[in-house]
Amino acid sequence: MDSLKEITAEIIKFSDDRDWSQFHNSKDLAVALSIESSELLELFLWKGNDDFNRDRLKEELADVFMYALLLAEKNQLDIKEIIFDKIKKNNEKYPVEKAKGTAKKYNEL
Ligand SMILES: [Mg+2]
């Protein structure tokens, strides 16, 4: 079994065991994803670039991944396909000859 599907199945099992899937509409999954992203950011607030709690990073990153996977599953999206499609778009927006070594946004290249 594809590992992403295996991971998603485990998350859904956890949720279904608690009858929580009834709450997992796309809007609330997107809100939860954003909240978990903020919890991830909070680990870095008022600190130096590499001054963060690694154990807390693992937890918050896992939360972000879990809600992202649930949101994709809810909308029957293939993770590999949507990421590869986005990389293709990014390649077009950020051609190597223009984007290499710069952090400028595509509309400033
Ligand atoms: Mg969290």
UniProtKB/TrEMBL annotation:
Record organism: Paenimyroides ceti
Protein name: Nucleotide pyrophosphohydrolase
SUPFAM superfamilies, A to Z: all-alpha NTP pyrophosphatases (SSF101386)
InterPro entries: dCTP_Pyrophosphatase, DCTPP
UniProt-listed CDD domains: NTP-PPase_RS21-C6_like
Pfam family of the protein (one): MazG-like
